[in-house]
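Sync notes, pocket subgroup
Present: LS, DG
LS reminded everyone that the earlier model was apo-only. Rerun requested with manganese (II) ion included. Inputs:
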Amino acid sequence: MRPIIFFHVIKTHNLGLFLLVVFFCVTFATVFELRNMLKRVITPQEVAIAKKDFGECRNVVIVCHTSPDGDAIGSSLGLYEYLKRKGKQVTVIVPNYFPDFLHWMKDADKILRFDRQKTASYAALKLADLICCLDFNDMRRIDELGIAVGRMHCKRLLIDHHLDPDRKQFGHIISHPEMSSTSELLFRLIDAMEDTKNLTFAAAEDLYAGIATDTGFLSFNSNDPDLFVIISELLKKGIDKDRINRNIQNNYSADRLKFIGYVLYEKLQVFPELHASLFAIKKEELTQFHYMKGDMEGVVNMPLQIKGHKLSIALREDTERPLIRVSTRSVDDLPCNEFCEQFFNGGGHKNAAGGTLECSMEEAVDIAMKALEAWRDRLADDANAAPNPNVDSKP
Ligand SMILES: [Mn+2]
């Protein structure tokens, strides 16, 4: 139809005009549907940084924090998939071991371990024109790998959700501590670049795994409605979230289950008036249950199942170095990162934080007990634990 006749029809027929309006509305709604559904938290400057860095690079190295968790590996492999799809040469390097329950991810076997594959890691680092630093805020969090990264003269881009990144160490910084996970941040960044079409099925699996592990399968840090929009978009890529949840959660040894039983039955000290608890595990006990790295994952969350509980503290003797690893979890507004900063040379997120102590286990327990005592006022406050008078507690 020639344009003149087309517009003539529209002018003279209300139906034509109506259809034209409908056509534009549908097109507009489809293109802008997702973009309008997510809050615009990624700034135009951040979009420009990412577009430039991802556009100009050819050889990329992605690094994440020591003892990588689901978010570190998920966001790293998610970005790896995305950049490979854009035609880049990409290598993921992790500082050390990552748990078996993350090995199902596509290309997890191609990840280099810096502590074991130094030659290959250095070769990739020397070739890199961009190093992406994911899920940590300070090179000291990646140990020796941080020193190697620091020596390279190429661009360094940080994409992370931890508080207070050390700005001197990175050239470009995309930091959003308000986000549940680096994986969520990465999805938002790619969405803000209007490029989610280049998120593959495998990338969607990786990002979902990252969000799921950093939010305890959407049980904490996950009240932002946007998170569910993002997961819905990942589901549209065809991922099977139930299978991913099973891959991550049900992948332990029988020894680990018995170890949990032992910790809860023999080791857990509960302080009901403080709504807090503490357990301390020595090296011999870890050996007794054939401890594998990753076996302690989630155990510190368990005491929070006690009604009214606010704070859980876990102390564990490191298997390689002479120090005590402290892990804490809290609920609502109780900031366990402040607790860890104050007493355990550490920090982290409001409800999940950790630290280290260089002392004997006996001394570490003593420090933890004193810390609990120092926070008595904040812990003993019964506001959250008040019994509901409308509930009959008798069976
Ligand atoms: Mn994370």
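DG: Residues 71, 135, 161, 181-182, 214 surround manganese (II) ion (CB under 6 Å).
LS: The chain has two domains: 44-249, 254-380.
Action: DG to write up.
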